[in-house]
Amino acid sequence: MAAPSHNTSKLSQVQALVDILKADLQDHDLPPEKRVATLEELKVFGRDADQSGPIFTKEGIEMLCKHAFEGTDNESALEAMRCLANALLIVPETRQIFVELEYAEKAVNRYQNNSPDEEFLVGRILFLVTYATPDIPKWLEEYKLAKYLNDAITEHGEIYSKINKNKQPSAMQDMAFTETTKLLFNLAHLAPEKVHLFSRSIPNLFKILCRRTLPSLPLQSPIAHLINALLNLDLSSQTGCVFPSFDPTCNVAGLVRVLDLSVESPNEKRNDQRNQLFDEAGVPLITLLRKLFEISSDQAKEYMRKRLLPSDEQRKNPLGKGDSLASRLLQLSASAAALNIRQHLALLLFEVSNSNPEEFVRNVGYGYASGLLLSAGVQLPQSALEGLSTSPDNSGRLFNPVTGQALDCEPEIKDPFSGMSDEEKEREAERLFVLFERLKRTGVVDIQNPVEKALHEGRFEELD
Asked: Any idea which UniProt keywords this protein has (predicted)?
């Protein structure tokens, strides 16, 4: 690639490159390698809008579109698409120019080429242009974009077939898949009446989610965009593939696995980055789990309860003290580091408790339930608290309604006077009397000495 000259201004150099590429559209006299080098140089200048105006004019965008979608040289076309994608990102006004030039259909057709490089670039271009066009239904049906997206996602799903067991995608394939799922999310969001056109992609999206190797921080590209894409699809119309007969829990388990890897105890300083990422990107995941629970089979619902709610074993201690997923969710729900996600966690745990306030308190303890319900705006009726400490759960055990700990596992409270002689008890009472009198004389608090009160009420016994 030729280095930019420092003897002329950036603006004049950009104009000269645009003029060369415009002339080439008529004369076709640039060798392919020279055309690619010229477009590469223009791409470098176009990363900063300052003094790069000729790129972002109608003539500049049209020139790039012609090289990208009407040229015969594939390498030049790819480089022109890179320039175009940068322009659409940096200067949003160019998106409307692209729409007016009517290059959307030609861009959509490039999805058929089964090339990760083209899928990445065309996916990004169309994603950016969705914000400037009312023609999305036309794109989906007349231009067949829905079909091409479904086909592309099917190709990505084939990477994870049983024949290719343990095979993982290349970096370029992952980048292409990310742009396709981002585009799918926008299309389904902006044209919800056409969302049924993407039903064919639901099983492949779940296959990819469940079979790919997850990174240590999974709520990043491409998993985060895959979850976003699923969130906008009509899962209720595809319950047969969402909860397959061979294993109704497999897809729910895949999402819970992402959740498990995304949440750590907020008490550990080393986990700040993980929980911060979860607080920022975890809402779609929690919302998708809620959406799935609503349409789940009984088997899938039971699986979610077992994974997300404290078990009987965990009730040997106050809830939220262990390292299980349920404990970490409770810890995070009460953490100041989870301001964005707390309300969504509350609703998930409440709905997994069959949206029953009393059952919810039984599951997580009133200490957590009160705060979670308050943050979610759910009123906890008084009837939900009555009799909780004396009414056994399904296993017949009584539990502390505040901490959720089984009463038979609570530590025995020892009598502080146990083992003392009568003389020692009398000296301890005198010591407490003196301490309370000193506190009373400070005037800081208005307090009645409990020893004095006991004397007045006749609760002290005279000793010989």
From this structure: Chaperone, Guanine-nucleotide releasing factor
Number of helical (H) and strand (E) elements in the chain, helices listed first:
23, 0
CA–CA separation, 348 vs 218, rounded Å? 20
d(CA 435, CA 437): 5
Residue 368 inside a domain? The answer is yes
The SS3 assignment for 449 reads coil
Q: Give CA–CA dist 125/122, Å, rounded.
A: 5
The upper half-sphere exposure of residue 321, i.e. CA atoms within 13 Å in the direction of its Cβ, equals 12
Kindly report, residue by residue over 218-271, the tens digit of the pLDDT: 999 999 999 999 999 999 999 999 999 999 999 999 999 999 999 886 665 555
433 and 307 share a domain? no
In 282-378, which residue ranges form alpha helices assigned H by DSSP?
Answer: 283-295, 298-308, 325-333, 342-352, 357-364, 366-376
> Is 369 inside a domain boundary?
yes
Domain coverage including residue 430: 422-456
| In contact, 184 and 227? CB cutoff 8 Å | no
**Domain match, 287 and 433 both:** no
Q: Rounded to two decimals, what is the model's pTM?
A: 0.82
